[in-house]
Amino acid sequence: MAGLMRNGGFREPQTTASRAKGGLLVLGGFVVLLFIIELFNTLTLGSLTRTFGLRPRSADGLLDIFTFPLLHANLNHLLSNSLPLIIFGFLVFLSGLRVFLTALAFSWLGSGITVWLIGDGGITIGSSGLVFGLFAFLLVRGFFNRSWKQILLAVVLFMGYGSILLGMLPIVSGFVSWQAHLGGAAGGVLAALILRPRSGPERQRDRAIPR
């Protein structure tokens, strides 16, 4: 996504319309990439899943943390994740590229690390951990930011999608990775905490540090 250059630095688009356009391009492009990967994986009889799926508590699995959300078991699995990924990702992106990338990164890493540490075994794939992370970020950020608009959005989202949070519980079906969901949600909450507005003393300390 193109930005504006001012005084030799990069500045994100500031208007809501620019961010909305950027969000649609980024999320749309990411989902298209997921479909291309799924097509190739299907044509090669799951070769990507066997190579890049996440294996808990294995040395190779540490690298798979960075690849497993890009893979899916089948087309239906990908379709079930695509719409909420676009919706939640787009809503986060409206707050800016930096906020979106931070929330996505923490959701990604939180999901993968949790699966690697406490996964039940076998191979875990799917972007649902990202979905849970972005959703959790949207649910809690308003409370950290003390923004009534964001809290109202969280209430609306919870009323529409709150039932998916049951997917973080160990009681869900065995073929669903509740660990990925739980870790992704934890990462989203952590991202919201890190991105919260700084208090007065923190801002004063930053000003006191020579640039």
Automatic annotation (TrEMBL):
- Principal location class: membrane
Annotated signal sequence is none
Biological process terms in GO annotation = proteolysis
Coiled-coil parts of chain: none
Sequence ranges assigned to domain Peptidase S54 rhomboid in this UniProt record: 63-197
Keywords, A to Z, come to: Hydrolase, Membrane, Protease, Transmembrane, Transmembrane helix
Q: Which GO terms describe its molecular function?
A: serine-type endopeptidase activity
For this record, the Gene Ontology CC terms, alphabetical, are: membrane
Q: What's the protein name?
A: Rhomboid family intramembrane serine protease
Q: Which organism is it from?
A: Pseudarthrobacter enclensis
